[in-house]
Design brief:
About 40% of the residues lie in helices and about 40% in strands. It is α+β, with helices and mostly antiparallel strands and about 220 residues long.
Length: about 220
């Protein structure tokens, strides 16, 4: 690109900036404030969306010996799945029915990337409820497999495809992201409420002023 072309583009950009500045100055102060609040609300909603985006997944693989049970899964204390699991009569040598039950269940749950605490609870019809939790890091756009063994005498959780045991500690970043998300929603809701209140107050006055401005014949 030659120097003349560059100079022409700069001149057009300067002219555009000048016209934009003139237009902005011609806009009433109240309209500028409204535009600024709308822009701020849009930015806050974008930040909230980025914080709460579920860009990873948890693949739950459950083996159990229940005839029927309720299964619940929490991710960072937020209920992510709840449903019923059932089993079938276990057969000896594949032919002879026994009194034992067996069943399997698989579910993929969307989660946010970062350190997450997974809590699993089973509540069988004929046994005491069992609950356990485990923590691990989730990378963006990556699926992690969690193996769950649910028996009447206990519940065991273990990660598959990982070389080291996850450290089961509380996630300060998870707490911070939830707090920031709630704060952004509160601020955005307040801004939108203020805008709605302003519109309700100003709109009737605008509508009343319209007939008065019409020239009388």
């Amino acid at each position: 690109m030659n120097s003349e072309r560059i100079a022409e583009l700069r001149a057009k950009a300067a002219l555009f900036d000048q016209k934009a500045l003139q237009w902005f100055r011609s806009v009433p102060l109240r309209a500028r404030i409204l535009l600024g609040l709308f822009f701020l609300a849009a930015v806050l909603m974008a930040i909230h969306t980025a914080l709460t985006a579920k860009d990873a997944s948890l693949h739950l693989k459950l083996q159990h010996d229940f005839r029927s049970a309720q299964l619940s899964v929490w991710v960072d204390d937020d209920l992510a799945f709840a449903g019923k699991i059932t089993g079938a009569t276990k057969k000896k040598f594949g032919l002879i029915p026994t009194d034992a039950q067996q069943g399997s269940f698989s579910q993929i749950i969307a989660v946010r990337s970062g350190r997450r605490n997974i809590r699993v609870r089973t509540q069988p019809e004929d046994a005491a409820p069992q609950e356990d939790s485990i923590t691990a890091d989730f990378a963006s756009n990556v699926e992690r497999d969690l193996s769950v063994s649910a028996r009447k005498n206990g519940l065991a959780l273990s990660w598959q495809g990982t070389g080291s045991a996850p450290v089961e500690t509380a996630s300060s970043f998870s707490w911070l992201s939830r707090y920031a998300s709630s704060l952004f929603l509160t601020i955005t809701g307040s801004i939108m409420s203020a805008l709605a209140g302003y519109a309700i107050r100003e709109l009737p006055a605008r509508l009343r002023s319209t007939p008065d401005s019409t020239p009388k014949l």
